[in-house]
Design brief:
This protein has about 550 residues and is of the alpha/beta class. The strands form 2 sheets. Strands 6-7-8-3-9-10 form a 6-stranded mixed beta sheet, sandwiched between helices. Strands 2-1-4-5 form a 4-stranded antiparallel beta sheet, with helices on one face. The protein folds into 2 domains: about 10-325, ABC transporter type 1, transmembrane domain (ABC transporter transmembrane region fold, Up-down Bundle); about 340-555, 3-Layer(aba) Sandwich (Rossmann fold). Helix 5 (about 140-160) runs antiparallel to helix 10 and helix 8 packs antiparallel against helix 9 (about 280-295). Helix 17 (about 510-525) links the parallel strand 7 (about 500-505) and strand 8. The chain has helices spanning about 10-15, 25-55, 65-110, 120-140, 140-160, 165-210, 215-220, 225-275, 280-295, 295-325, 380-390, 410-415, 430-435, 445-455, 460-465, 480-495, 510-525; strands at about 340-350, 360-365, 370-375, 395-400, 405, 420, 500-505, 530-535, 545-550, 555.
Length: about 550
């Protein structure tokens, strides 16, 4: 379900709230930034004072004194700028780490029910490039806004002290450059930023899909088609970025025009005030130079609108993930289950309001039962297992363990009591040892070997040059499907849960290895509850209860 789009103001407020733990450091950044910009303005202003004194205009400060002030401000400007940038980027990179942590936590809560349907390329884009672009906001937006506002007020007060008209005019031009231009431009360019980030995510997804399906692309000679499609995506990205850059150029040009008008206005007013005897020529020159040199912070605010177009689009995609409600809410805490009896009571379920996958289905499984559920592909066998593990919630009815509804059992307790072995085994790009130890991180090497022997994979591992320290490659690419499935069984044996859930556990094994694995399961899991789904009756030889899933109903097989 598409999330409601938030306004730029609301997005900015949410991004600022993340800064709360680092507020003291942000105050340091802002304070040193203000002092740094004042020092930079002072360099130009007192340089003008020195020049005016040399030319014979009375400005109240000697040229030598003004030059000393310029040198001191130049040194101070460098020091202050360094501290400002260092603290600002420290905040930015710390916040980015916090945001990535929040995203991973949100994705974990969405998994597996809602995560399965999301495009992986888009998620990668959010976690990497989208969050990285938020560095622009934290390092180059929050502090500059505060710095721009405060420095503008201070400079306006200085100009007001020279003449109130100068102060009033400076406020007008600061507002135009620092507020009205960014607000006006963002309204017209916001959609362009959103479209660019969406196109960027789509391009990532397509490229990732192409990499994953490279074998099929080569087999069916679709390489040229894919290349052309990738080039087309790149052209679309280029076009969307061109729109953003074109808008950026217009805004910069408009900002420069406004600044030029401001300087000319000050020049005109200075002449008139001097003719009226309200200011000296020296004061007029100082006012003009001070104004011209003070636009740095507000120009930064104007340029921010261009960066914020993409920044807000990235933030919107990020918050869509953080705000999405999980299909299954975790239950906090941890308890002990009174028994391991499983009861499926008149349940019904469907995906996204489609026709029911399961309807009015019931099943009683006692502790120690070995239950096989046999059916054709698409009959709902795997769906039933997902419901028993509470990857999804049932639409109707109830599933309970030990008489307690799955919806009320703490998630940690439920996960510890169950182990899943599926036909699609996922292996991390790590060693065989660490992949097997996913079942129990605290297991000894001897325990890992025992589990591998039970899964009939130990001998194969020992034949490898690096044995258990062999890297399985990305997605387990260095191993065959059967080898990966046996490693999954080794994980399950190592985990040693009370309930073993098997989803086509031997689908990728030959007859000999299948018989070996089934014998190990039968020998090692006599006191455990086993729920196995398969489309092959041979896999159910170790089970004492067999059911056929037909027409969304379970039928006992003798």
């Amino acid at each position: 379900m598409e999330q409601k789009r938030q306004s730029g103001f609301k997005i900015m407020l949410r991004l600022i709230k993340v800064l709360k733990p680092l507020a003291p450091i942000m105050m340091i950044t802002i304070s040193f930034g203000i002092l740094g910009f004042l020092a930079a303005t002072a360099i130009t202003s007192f340089g003008m004072v020195a020049g005016a004194d040399i030319l014979g205009f009375n400005v109240g400060i000697s040229a030598s004194t003004a030059i000393k002030i310029v040198i001191a401000c130049a040194i101070l400007r460098g020091i202050l700028r360094f501290i400002e940038q260092y603290s600002g980027h420290f905040i930015a990179f710390t916040i980015l780490a916090i945001l990535r942590d929040q995203v991973f936590k949100a994705l974990r809560k969405l998994a597996p029910a809602k995560l399965e349907s999301k495009e992986k390329g888009s998620l990668i884009s959010i976690i990497t490039s989208d969050i990285e672009l938020l560095e622009v906001f934290y390092a180059h937006t929050v502090a500059p806004i505060a710095i721009g506002v405060v420095t503008s007020i201070i400079i306006a007060c200085v100009l007001f002290a020279i003449n109130p008209i100068f102060g009033a005019l400076s406020v007008v031009f600061y507002l135009i450059v620092g507020y009205f231009i960014p607000v006006f431009s963002s309204k017209f360019a916001k959609q362009g930023g959103v479209e660019y980030r969406a196109a960027f995510a789509d391009s990532n997804s397509y490229f990732l899909e192409s990499l994953n399906g490279i074998k099929e692309i080569l087999l069916f000679d679709k390489g040229e088609d894919r290349k052309n499609a990738i080039n087309e995506n790149s052209e679309k990205l280029h076009e969307k970025m061109g729109v953003i850059k074109g808008h950026e150029g217009i805004i910069r040009a408009f900002t420069d025009i406004v600044i030029m008008i401001a300087i000319l206005t000050f020049l005109f007013v200075s002449i008139k005030l001097n003719e009226q005897g309200q200011i000296t020529i020296g004061q007029g020159l100082v006012a003009i130079v001070t104004l011209a040199s003070s636009f740095g912070p507000v120009v930064a605010l104007s340029n921010l609108s261009n960066n914020l177009i993409q920044t807000f689009a990235c933030a919107q995609r990020l918050f869509d993930i953080l705000d999405e409600v999980p299909a299954v809410e975790d239950v906090e805490g941890e308890t002990e289950l009174s028994s391991k009896d499983i009861k499926v009571d008149n349940i019904s379920f469907d995906y996204d309001n489609r026709e029911n996958i399961l309807k009015d289905l019931s099943l009683d499984i006692k502790k120690g039962d070995k239950v096989a559920i046999i059916g054709e592909s698409g009959s709902g066998k795997s769906t039933l297992l997902k419901l028993m593990m509470r990857f999804w919630n049932v639409d109707k009815g109830e599933i309970s363990i030990g008489g307690e509804n799955l919806k009320t059992i703490p998630t940690k307790t439920l996960r510890k009591s169950q182990t899943l072995v599926s036909q699609d085994t996922f292996l991390f790009n790590d060693t065989i040892l660490n992949n097997i130890k996913m079942g129990d991180r605290d297991a000894s090497f001897e325990d890992v070997i025992k589990a591998a022997k039970k899964a009939s994979i130990h001998e194969f591992i020992m034949k490898l040059p690096q044995g258990y320290e062999t890297n399985v490659g990305e997605l387990g690419g260095n191993l065959s499907s059967g080898e990966k499935q046996r490693m999954s069984m080794a994980r399950a044996f190592l985990r040693n849960s009370d309930i073993l859930i098997l989803d086509e556990p031997t689908s990728n094994l030959d007859t000999l290895n299948e018989a070996s694995i089934l014998k190990s399961i039968d020998d090692e899991c006599k006191d455990k509850t086993i729920v196995m789904v398969s489309h092959r009756k041979s896999s159910s030889a170790i089970c004492n209860k067999r059911y056929g899933l037909e027409n969304k109903k379970l039928v006992r097989i003798q």
